[in-house]
Amino acid sequence: MSVSEIADVIGVDQPRASRLVNDSAERGLVTRRADDKDARRSVVELTDAGRAMLTSANASRRTAVTDAVADFTPEETAQFAALLNRFVAGWTKHDGGHRPL
């Protein structure tokens, strides 16, 4: 992805995305290289360390959500999921298509 694409996906401006990419590169989580098709554009790619961190963070979030709804009845779980889906649809509609963080 380019820095601009990353900015769009995470809902920040391009300078902020660039700082986040630079910080991630310094930590060894991503690499930046010139785009083969357009040398003015940088392509950002996850490293193995970045992929491992992302996998771990996703697993932690899944566990936290599972634990948070563990005492819900099946009906409450279905209602919560429906409301959450409505919230996300409203958020992305209001926010020009950016996904909530």
Q: Largest sheet, described in full?
A: 2 strands, antiparallel
The succession of helices and strands, N to C, reads: HHEEHH
* CATH-assigned fold name of the domain at 3-68: Arc Repressor Mutant, subunit A
- Assign the structural class, choosing from mainly alpha, mainly beta, alpha/beta, alpha+beta, or little secondary structure: mainly alpha
Number of strands: 2
Spatial arrangement of strands, main beta sheet = 1-2
**Which assembly state applies to the chains in this document?**
single chain
Tell me what the CATH architecture of the domain at 3-68 is: Orthogonal Bundle
State the name of the first-level CATH class of the domain at 3-68.
Mainly Alpha
Mean pLDDT across the residues is 90
CATH superfamily of the domain at 3-68: Winged helix-like DNA-binding domain superfamily/Winged helix DNA-binding domain
What is the helical fraction, as a range of percent?
55-70%
Q: Report the C-alpha radius of gyration, rounded.
A: 18 Å
**Whole-Å distance between the termini?**
18 Å
| Weakly predicted, low-confidence segments | none
Shape: elongated
Number of helices: 4
What percent of residues are in strands? 5-15%
Labels describing this entry:
101 residues; mainly alpha; Arc Repressor Mutant, subunit A; two-stranded antiparallel ribbon; 4 helices
